[in-house]
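Lay summary

Proteins are chains of building blocks that fold into shapes. Our project writes down both the chain and a compact code for its shape. Here are two examples, one after the other.
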Amino acid sequence: MAETLDTADRTDPSARREALAGLALDKGAVFAPKRRSRFGAGRLMLLAIVVVGIAAWLWRSASAAPAVQVGTVLKRSPIVDAEITTANGYVRARTRASLASKTQGRLAKVLVDEGDLVTAGQLLAVVEHDEADAGLVAAQARIAAAQREVAVADAAIDEALAAQASAKALLAEREAGRDAAQAELAQANAGFRRIEDLVTREIRSEADLDSAREARDVAQAQVRRADAAVATAQKDIARADAARATAQYQREASAARVAIEEAERQRIEVQRAQSFITAPFAGVVLRREAEPGEVVSPANTGASGSKTAVVTLADFATLEVEVDVYERDIARISAGAPCRVVLDSRTDRRLEASVRLVRPTADRTRSTVQVYVAFAAVPEFARPEMVARVTFYRPQTAVLTDDELIVPGAAVTSRGGQDGVFVVAGQTARFRALRLGEARSGDRLVLDGLVAGESVVLSPADSLNDGDAIAVSGR
């Protein structure tokens, strides 16, 4: 009715009036069903025809798509036949140390941080050493005092040696005087005997004999005085020897005290040096275990509430992989055998390596043997404790050969004189020209044109055209 009004409005006023009159209701009339206009029924019929046509086209298209079997493009290593076994493990540093203080004390400062590169002998941390400093000063003072005692003893020795030399010179002089007195005594005795003989023969008088006796007695007295002087000089020498011996003893005691104090000073210096933690080798700081203000102590003391390790250091040049290999495979693995390592952090990099050591004992709980694998060249991205996958190969195997792309030989066909395959793209097959290599046990080596994981039509590839619809029946 709205369409009738709209049409009448666009024609003339009389038609509009007639249309309005037609809108009047006949009160006595009984409502009868409305008749559908020709125009609405035509539209519905047209829509039904279109839907039926599309459905028929889809049914014909689906029923016309051929069922095909597909395969997958694979990436395979050419040395797979040389593979012995594969094991998982972890990267570790062969040269690694947790550095602790050798003396207990409060940590004064830490001079490095995690990730820092350090050289051998570089200072890493310092423990408070005030007590050692005070002990060192006291030891130096005691050494100085003992050295002064040694100097005094040396002076006493020199004085005793001088007195000894003087006494020896005096003794020589007095021995010479005694020798002269003894010579005079001998001469006096000879004169006395000669005069006594002359007196007996009455050639000389008694007075001459008395004079000779007196001269002999004088000579004897001089000899006695000379002997006493010699004895005195000998006593002086003995006293000088005793003084020198005493001074020598004092010097030796003082020198021993110097040595003891020097040893004590060295002990304190060593103790003080232990307060300075240095790098035993060049490497990288893995962990900073303690902070300034914390109490640190040697690992063997077990002091409660104290830290032991201050810094953990590793030499990245000694990184290697530690893996557990099952006992059933270990007989085929020996030192020097080639390996290929792939780290989880860089699965795109394959690293050449070799077996460094097969441990001579097994783990009874897991039935494995630890094997250490050394990198041919340690990669810059390797870190301790990284997860690694190690593949072991037979000797003289080149472990870094590139992986190969393999396509099933049944998928290869030709179009326009060009070898290629039909690649599955949704529900259609698209022909792709390839650069192929040699055949490998029914497969073909793909040099260019495909990537691993793509699906290709196996059959019936020869009857397809580019863009044909397909129905995948199996893989």
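And here is the second example, written the same way.
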Amino acid sequence: MQETTMRGIYPILCTPFFEDGQIDEASLRRLVDFNIQAGVHGLGIALASEVFKLTEAEREQVTRIVVEQVAGRVPVVVNTGAAGTDLAVHYSRAAHANGANALMIMPPNFMGASNEEVVDYFKAISDAVPLPIFIQDTQMVPVSTGLARALANQCEWVQYIKVESQPVTAKVAAMQEELGDKLVIFGGAGGGYFIEEMRRGSVGTMPFCTQPEAFVEIWNLCQAGNEAAAKEVFNRYLLPVARLSGQGGGLHFGIHKEILRQRGIFSTGKVRSPSSALDTYTADELTAIIAELYPTKAYE
């Protein structure tokens, strides 16, 4: 395990685009500062960043911009998983070269892979790049406790797991009970079960990047033993957005980017195609939520 264990709030950054689909560097830099000023403990570039819609050059561009803007203030975790081992190693080496502090990797799922193949995949990455690795357990590719144990035992740099497969809270509890001595456990899935995950042994979460102040406040309150106040903050600020964005179909991308636009951080709410557009009802409901929670823009 590395000397300093990562823990706390690690929001996954959205990637801002201009209406023509090009990366909006100024908005991305604002987003980094907005989150760090809110007190987050780290930042991530991953699936919520639409990395699967970025070219290789754009992946490196986003990583370079984020690392440069962070300027060592917090760790940066980069998702470098791929359908093939060689490509995942390539992405991982590029992330390392561009200043990432840790990697997050989902088992390959395009063609499916046996547990032995998944271990070989992670081991190849671990042997190639000297950075801590988060196993990403998702609903698309769930990682069993047995597989997680094999990865931790056989791959030097596999040190963390981000648990997102359902039932999330039961999975966190099982990972902590069986692997708490081998893996540091984070939650994800938008942070919707953040408090419950911490009760079960999680030491952090990787939510969306649109409400970092609320997540940091919840973290601080829970660390101080005031879970009742933490729940009030969750219900007041996070629950309305979670209910609207948790309807599936990729709607969350547009909702969170629109929040960032209306909060004055992004210049547009552009999501790269294919994407689910906000219907009139949802757009109006989101605008009402933002007006109630954040009547003043973070940036004018």
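What can we say about the second shape? The first helix runs from residue 25 to 37.
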